[in-house]
Amino acid sequence: MSTLNKKLSVLLAAVCICGTATAQQKHSRTSNYKSYKGLVMAGYQGWFNTPEDGANRNWNHWVAKGQLEPGNIKVDLWPETKEYGKTYKTPFVHEDGSPAYLFSSYDASTVNLHFKWMKDYDVDGLFVQRFVGQVRGGANRHHNNRVMHHALEASKKYNRAIAVMYDLSGMRDSVDVPMLINDWKNLVDSLHMTDGGDKQTYLYHRGKPLVALWGVGFSGRNYTLRSIERLMNFLQNDPVYGGCAVLLGVPAYWRDLAKDAANDPHLHDVLKRADIVHPWAVGRFKTEEEYATYLQQVKGDIAWCRENKVDYVPVVFPGFSWTNMYPRFPLNQIPRNNGSFYWKQISGAIGAGAEMLYVAMFDEVDEATAIFKLSKNPPVGKSPFVKLADDEPSDHYLQLTGYAAKMLRKEVPFREQIPAAKPGK
């Protein structure tokens, strides 16, 4: 090789090295939260609005359509609002005739308080939900970006883990793939979500930023596994914005390709490329006795994942109700039973060998799965609400979730029986 050609080869190699280094600069090599293992994370909707909050989304998610008023509301739980920096008067009243108030997720003070509660109760962090239909543009995208910004700032303030979860519900096959790719690029570039060094709070797993794709392999979806693979390929392999770990949210019966899962064996091939498998269990059992049967599914899932070198995170949820959204369903459809239903899942999953947990959800009052502070005195009138038991403090489920995190990390002894509730903070 001539001297000139040798110089050119060295120069080209240097350019390639520099290009690789530049590509790697989008994500820091590590984070303060280096692994999901040992953590209890919750889902965070952050989708609530009021007409006066400035988001131009009216009473979004408090009501489905029409005016918010007794007899027309979407939620079955009423939040405890005493500690919020900003609240908004509603047409609802409490038993003593005083007006009832609600919060807006658009306000920084709301998101800040939610992260403060996580710090106070030792809940490790949140997956901030980004629904496909909500990030396409307009007021919805603006709201979601604002909530994400507030959440990222609050996660730093209170040193709580944070990660992005894309909910693919309503996704148009192939059409929305470029949009989602651009959304991740925008979050990385504009919010600097993953370039904060070893002190940052973005959740990493297997040495890489963790991104969740929820809604993979469910029956009746309009998008194909091919679109999922395109998203995964970008997140895992893109030279600039990739290099991510991927969590896939799948049906409860993904392993059997039955019931809520599409009968497509290729799903298993896709899951073997993931870093974490996350089956959705909400509503799949309604009592502690039914959960005992479902626990065998969890144990089989864990065995499959270990065999295929994929990590596994089960879902736990405190209860379920959506009467105000769908009146044909009974109120308190899946009762909380003073927290024993929730704790049965927590102790069952940890006892079966789960190394991390996902709580559905932190603030989901629409379907009454929320674990944040709940009102002991919900409004009275035409709209029914699920009430906590007399001896349950408003922060009961935050207490239980924090204890679960300590138990997962063996900081407190394992216990099958639910810990006694303490007086509320």
Automatic annotation (TrEMBL):
UniProt subcellular location: Golgi apparatus membrane
CDD domains: GH99_GH71_like_2
GO molecular-function terms, A-Z: alpha-mannosidase activity
Cross-referenced InterPro entries: Glyco_Hydrolase_99
Coiled coil: none
UniProt signal peptide: 1-23
Gene3D superfamilies in the record: Glycosidases (3.20.20.80)
Source superkingdom: Bacteria
Topology within the bilayer: Single-pass type II membrane protein
Keywords of the record: Golgi apparatus, Hydrolase, Membrane, Signal, Signal-anchor, Transmembrane, Transmembrane helix
PANTHER family: ENDO-ALPHA-1,2-MANNOSIDASE, RE57134P
The protein's name: Xylosidase
Gene source species: Chitinophaga barathri
Higher taxonomy: Bacteria, Pseudomonadati, Bacteroidota, Chitinophagia, Chitinophagales
